[in-house]
Write a structure and sequence with these properties.
The complex is a heterodimer of chains A (311) and B (190). Chain A contains eleven helices and nine strands. Chain A is an alpha/beta fold. Chain A is globular, with a radius of gyration of 19 Å. Chain B is of the alpha/beta class. In chain B, 44% of the residues are buried. The chains are: A alpha/beta (311), B alpha/beta (190).
Chain lengths: 311, 190
């Protein structure tokens, strides 16, 4: 495996299978009375979050703690960053303190890649701008494989604001890599023009897609996009693309409803639809911890470039 | 096959049967006894012991599988993170006598890791150790309660355990150190 996880392009299909299989063992650890193993004792993981994110940060924090690593949470408010420190100086400081891994969330696409130039440890991308969010994609793949038994030839629709969604990009790349059939669904203004080059289908009509799906993946509507006039009104969006009770009825038996959270109930997903048995949104959260444990273990569990005996 | 044969199929069968008898004798029956095999191959041996115990005593004992990877003391010292196997201990070990089962006892580091792993599942009354082969060269104060065969080896030799369940045949052999890695368990500990 690569030393960093910046993008789904950093991992091969075999790597993905290995990550999912390793996560399976960590799922078991999560069911024990003592949910902690000593695998990464003495390693330091820094959560460097330049953008608010409760669930991803907590998930990474819990994952590192369950591996017995030391965790430092560094958020921009109330830190040296609010005093104007640059990403480079922050990185060098963390480097000097001996961080073995840095988990970074940043509003600028590509900042995790830039970070790798300044630090010796592994860098994990926890979401950068509109670029990628690879750990989310991997936990989604894990959830699909767990529930449906396979990824190959799975028919998945990703519905909503694909244009601004790093989740949609990472998930599309990962699913295509694993041989799934992906359809992007949304208003034409919110589908990236280069989508066909990703190896996916595009549709502007959710009704025609639903009856053929194994997984219906809803993206969060970012309300500020309406002010930027990507769509006329939130109500119209909900009517045209929201997952309503009636639309759930069009899904084949046994198909899944997924959402990366946080949800706008009543916008992209009708409130009680999120609580239906075929909705696996909570399982996605639980599996997220196992996937992040697997990634930290695989990236930090070897001597690699960190020292030790070397290669 | 290269290497010197230490145990063949009937000898492995007899050793397993004898260990099953010894476990029952030591614990005065199968009451409160559970078997936990260390992956890979220790779990297959544990299942064989359970079958033997059932045949001898008519009592069924629970069998669990333990993967000790997360408890190793050499994580971060190898180039790659060690591969992880399945752990499945589907019963409560509190107040039970746990018989740990492994194929080869060598440095004792695997068993040290397994003891740490086990106490994360609860507090057993006692933990005993059963191994098919004890090849010596301990680096920790650990000994086995039940041994299939004691085999004097050189430190750099490789003891290979093949079991029908994974390798298609039952045989224990000792091989010269170098050359490409043969399939089969060699005693993970190095």
């Amino acid at each position: 495996m690569n030393k960093h996880l910046l993008s789904i392009h950093d991992v091969t299909a075999e790597d993905i299978v290995r990550i999912l299989d390793t996560a399976e063992s960590f799922r078991e650890v999560g069911t024990r009375v003592i949910k902690k193993v000593p695998a990464l004792r003495g390693r330091t993981v820094v959560n460097l979050f330049y953008e608010n994110s409760t669930r991803t940060r907590i998930s990474f924090e819990l994952a590192a703690k369950r591996l017995s690593a030391d965790v430092i949470n560094f958020s921009t408010s109330g830190s040296s960053v609010s005093k104007g420190e640059s990403l480079k100086d922050t990185a060098l400081t963390l480097q000097a303190m001996g961080a073995d891994a840095i988990v970074i969330r940043h509003s600028s696409s590509g900042s995790p890649l830039t970070l790798t130039k300044w630090v010796r440890g592994s860098v994990l991308n926890a979401g950068d701008g509109t670029h990628e969010h690879p750990t989310q994609a991997l936990l989604d793949l894990y959830t699909m494989r767990e529930r449906l038994g396979r990824l190959e030839e799975l028919r998945v629709a990703i519905v909503g604001d694909v244009l601004h969604s790093r989740v949609a990009r990472s998930l599309s790349f990962a699913l295509v890599k694993m041989g799934a059939e992906v359809t992007l669904v949304g208003p034409p203004t919110l589908i990236p023009p280069d989508a066909p080059a990703w190896g996916v289908q595009v549709s502007y009509d959710i009704g025609s897609v639903l009856p053929k799906l194994d997984v219906c993946y809803m993206l969060r509507v970012q309300r500020e996009r309406q002010r930027q006039q990507y769509f006329p009104s939130v109500r119209e969006y909900a009517r045209l693309f929201g997952l309503t009770r009636d639309r759930v009825g069009m899904l084949p038996e046994g198909s899944l409803i997924m959402h990366p959270g946080p949800m706008n109930r009543g916008v992209e997903i009708e409130s009680d639809v999120a609580d239906l048995p075929q909705s696996v949104i909570e399982a996605q959260v639980t599996n997220g911890i196992a996937i992040r444990m697997a990634l930290l273990y695989l990236l930090l569990g070897g001597a690699g470039p960190h020292g030790g005996e070397g290669l | 096959m290269a290497g010197t044969r230490l145990l063949d199929e009937p000898e492995i069968r007899r050793a397993t049967t004898r260990i099953a008898h010894e476990i029952l004798e030591r614990n005065k029956g199968a009451d409160g006894v559970v078997l936990v095999g260390i992956a890979a191959r220790g779990d297959d041996l544990a299942r064989r012991l359970a079958v033997e115990i059932e045949r001898i005593e008519g009592a069924s004992v629970p069998v669990g599988v333990l993967d000790i990877t997360f408890y190793r003391d050499d994580i971060g010292m190898r180039a790659e993170a060690p591969e992880v196997h399945e752990t499945r201990v589907g019963f409560d070990i509190n107040g039970m006598t746990v018989v740990l089962v492994d194929d080869v006892l060598f440095t004792g580091r695997t068993i040290r890791a397994a003891l740490d792993a086990l106490v994360d599942f609860g507090r057993p009354t006692a933990i005993q150790l059963a191994v098919l082969v004890d090849r010596g060269h301990r680096e920790l104060p650990i000994r086995a309660d039940f041994v299939g065969k004691n085999v004097p080896t050189r430190r750099d030799e490789q003891v290979r355990v093949a079991l029908v369940e994974v390798d298609g045949e039952d045989v224990v052999s000792v091989e010269e150190p170098p050359g490409p890695k043969a399939p089969g368990g060699t005693g993970r500990e190095r």
